[in-house]
Amino acid sequence: MKQTIILIILLFETMSYSQTTNTDISETIIALEKGALEKWNQGDPSGYLDLSADDVTYFDPSIEKRLDGLDNLKKYYEPIKGQIQVSKYEMVNPTVTATNDMAVLTFNLHSYKAENVSKWNCTEVYRLEPNGKWKIVHTHWSSLIKP
What we know:
Layout: H1 2-40, H2 46-51, E1 52-59, E2 67-68, H3 70-77, E3 88-98, E4 102-113, E5 116-128, E6 134-143
Parallel strand pairs: 1-6
Antiparallel strand pairs: 1-2, 3-4, 4-5, 5-6
């Protein structure tokens, strides 16, 4: 009986630690993404480039096949530097599903230019690097177009 009680206590302690850690991870990932979006909205892709791992993979609606690697992502973003100006944005329903060293962020993005709004779906996969920093290892953007 005593062993059962000790086992139950240990189980509850592990569960509460796991939930706290995942909450912390969620808050961290969302904050990183918002920081990158703030820069992006002013025409500066460096927030996303700084967050991306060397082995990042990337999809968006304007490319036919997957883009592989940070160097290729830098080349892809180069022509759009200074071209994006968003007056405000909303990160709608961000959700993070995480383990200790991987996290998947999904959200809807509403980007406003004056009265016009662009709606996007986004999935980002983050990996915790050995240096303790979270890096994006996969990005997938899709434009929401209603028929």
